[in-house]
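Our consortium's second objective concerns turning raw sequence data into structural hypotheses that experimental partners can test. To show how far this objective has progressed, the report includes one record in full. It was chosen at random from the queue rather than selected for favorable results. The single chain below, 314 residues long, was entered without modification.
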Amino acid sequence: MATLRTIRLRIRGTKNIKQITRAMEAVSAVKMRKSQSVALAARPYATAALNILKSVAQGAARMDTTHPFFKTPQNDEILLLVVTSDKGLAGSFNTNVLKRAMEFMKEIEEQGKKIRVVAIGKRAAEFFQKRKRQPEQSFRGLGDSVNLADVSGLFQKVGEWAKRYEAVHICYTNFLSVMRQEVVVRKLLPFSEEGLEEMVKGIVPEKGKFADNDANSAKETANTTNKAREYLFEPSSKEIFDAMLPALLNIQIYHAILEANASEHSSRMVAMRSATNNAGELIKHYTMSQNKARQAMINKELAEITGGSEALAS
């Protein structure tokens, strides 16, 4: 049995840990609310942009365009963007993303195709390097308050990769609610109507003050985009696509990163709350052990005193 001094040290250390986890929970809650508000505020714009992209894709299909974002290169290489965090202590957030990414990579390799990865976040880069899968490129520092300027380097690279790979996918965590996030794999390139419909559906949140408004706007825009449209491109479809398609692709990638950031802070907040509760339970257990040890010492001293007095009396 641990000594009384050891138990006191354990109680003091656990209390310090509880203070740290409680502070981290509060910080994560603030960051989560900020990331959530940015992601939710971007959803209406992302929904409209993706529906425009869907309409353009339909028009391009009728025109048989040869734009790189619609054209599939003749090779068997797939590129996967994996979005994780730079920091840990976020529960199973990174584990779930990396597990889904490995499952997708296994599916592609079983089809006889090669797959390369781009690591967005420190955790993804370290994960694939340890498994001898050197990422095509890695990006860090895209957490917390990220903006479009911060991810400009990633946007430029995706445009280059569109000409090299048969398809480009992105694996990230979609924010559904504070207590629920979903790891998804979306197809970015080449553009397709099915992929755009899937992306638009994933933008609508399950709960929150934006849920009803976003759901209604998504239904309205979906109804509008289902109508057939005839496009007249002036001066040429190539010039218009060169200007518009990269910007719309950037919206998809930027929104995926925003969703991942909101999910990361939400997972960290829940994990720190659980750690704080566990520390409280551990302190109760140590306090009970301390009381038992103290009572055992008192009983021992009383027994010695009683035994001594009886010896003197006899």
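The partners drew two points from this record. The mean pLDDT is 79. The beta strands are 77-83, 114-120, 137-139, 167-177, 180-189. Both points have been shared with the crystallography group to help prioritize constructs.
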